[in-house]
Design brief:
single chain; alpha/beta; five-stranded parallel sheet; 19 helices; 48% helix
């Protein structure tokens, strides 16, 4: 079977040629790639030749009925949605159609809006099912990283390699890309999994307290030190310490960290004695440490000590379909937490979500989906439900700064492509006569014989 187009593909099956032409024109105007068949036999041949997203079939047809086609599709093409249309609507036929596998049932006569809405609902259900299947087919990952993109599969490979050693690892990436998740993955799939994993946000601890927090202090070593307390390195003994935002440490603290890495020992604040520790160090940064080294605000020797193994996390905008997987994963998560049914996402809403630049990466996506699940009342999240900034970015990137002639050229070309180059159909969709279309094509230097 072949699938050469990224457009959603629809097969129309009806013994009325006039009905097929009208439906094909209307659906093609919405950007769908439309195939037609006047009987079930033709429909089966098309199903075997192409990967289709939706089959829309009439109920009553000569010889083999729409019900028989629905059964055939449901038994042989499980990844295809089905919708029935009929001029002989009855409760019994509707129940039977749904029972054997039709997702939507539309009675004639119906408006274009009713048709488009039913088609969109069916395709949204298909997208949701496909995404859920992808989620279910992801190999179990104990560290909870969702993704199937090439970029994230490389990270999985890097995690496995890093987990097999005790070397220091430097994890880099923009804020919100999941650096701590990767650190936990390395620890819990390695030989130290049964020992402590201690995360430390170096940027979140005041400089004056960081040394005490990392290495501990003895009683009376400074005002407020009412008892001797171990630091994070002692707590992590035998396990792993994760130093997040390592770039935010001062040069003096960097020197002390370098000594710990070199000597494998720590000295508590207020003590003259050192203590050996067996700790694997994982560090993370959202900044370019090499650039900081050149600027003299990060020690070069510490950089080399940390940078034994490097894992660079890709930003969310470079992870393609992972955005959709994460969207549905978060939607399911927050639906469970709030006791609501899991919402669907319209095609346009998913398009905005996929094409948004996500400066906050996965953390931002998670927060947005949380808000949508809580605040949206309906079962389907539409573009107006999305944050205004995302909607604005979608408009801004859709070509509002392009010349009118360029936009018109693109639109006419798309319409022609959607109807297979049929100028009569294209003119109808555009709302102009064939002569006007020919003049526009000639003016735009588009080959009339395309």
């Amino acid at each position: 079977m072949c699938n050469l187009s990224e457009k959603e593909r629809i097969l129309l099956v009806d013994d009325s040629i006039d009905t097929l032409e009208v439906l094909q024109r209307n659906l093609a105007s919405q950007g769908y790639e439309v195939f037609t068949a006047s009987c079930v036999g033709e429909a089966v041949k098309i199903l075997e030749a192409f990967t289709l997203d939706l089959v829309i079939t009439d109920f009553r047809m000569p010889k083999v009925s729409g019900m028989d086609l629905i059964r055939h599709v449901r038994e042989n093409f499980k990844d295809t949605e089905i919708m029935m249309i009929t001029g002989y609507a009855s409760i019994e036929s509707a129940v039977e159609a749904v029972k054997i596998g039709a997702e939507e049932y539309l009675a004639k006569p119906f408006t274009c809006e009713e048709l488009f809405s039913a088609v969109r609902r069916a395709l949204d259900k298909l997208m949701l099912r496909r995404t859920r299947n992808k989620l279910n087919n992801i190999s179990p990952v104990p560290y909870g990283i969702i993704g199937q993109s090439v970029a994230i599969k490389k990270i999985f490979s890097d995690i496995e390699k890093a987990a097999s050693t005790s070397a220091t690892v430097l994890i880099s990436g923009e804020s919100g890309t999941g650096k701590e998740l990767v650190a936990r993955a390395i620890h819990y799939t390695g030989s130290r999994a049964s020992s402590p994993f201690v995360p430390v946000n170096c940027g979140g601890i005041p400089e004056g307290l960081l040394e005490s927090e990392l290495f501990g202090h003895v009683k009376g070593s400074f005002t407020g030190a009412t008892e001797t307390r171990a630091g994070f390195f002692q707590t992590a003994d035998g396990g792993t310490i994760f130093l997040d935002e390592i770039s935010d440490t001062s040069l003096s603290m960097q020197a002390k960290l370098l000594r710990v890495l070199q000597e494998k020992e720590v000295c508590m604040v207020g003590s003259a004695k050192t203590r050996k520790v067996d700790v694997r160090v994982l560090a993370a940064t959202n900044k370019d440490l090499q650039m900081l080294v050149k600027k003299g605000i990060f020690r070069e020797d510490l950089y080399f000590r940390l940078n034994v193994i490097t894992i660079d996390l890709p930003p969310l905008r470079e992870r393609g379909e992972d955005i959709v997987l994460l969207t549905y994963n978060f939607a399911a998560k927050f639906a469970r937490e709030t006791g609501k049914s899991m919402p669907g996402f319209s095609d346009n809403a998913l398009s905005v979500i996929k094409n948004y630049h996500w400066p906050g990466n996965i953390r931002e996506l998670e927060n947005v989906i949380n808000r949508l699940v809580v605040m949206t009342d309906g079962d389907l999240i539409e573009v107006p439900d999305l944050p205004s900034l995302m909607r604005f970015c979608a408009l801004r990137t859709s070509g509002l700064n392009r010349p009118l002639a360029e936009v018109e050229l693109e639109y006419i070309s798309n319409v022609l492509a959607s109807v297979g180059g049929n100028k009569t159909q294209a003119a109808d969709i555009l709302g102009i006569d064939r002569k006007t279309l020919r003049e526009k094509l000639k003016k735009m230097k588009i080959d009339e014989e395309q």
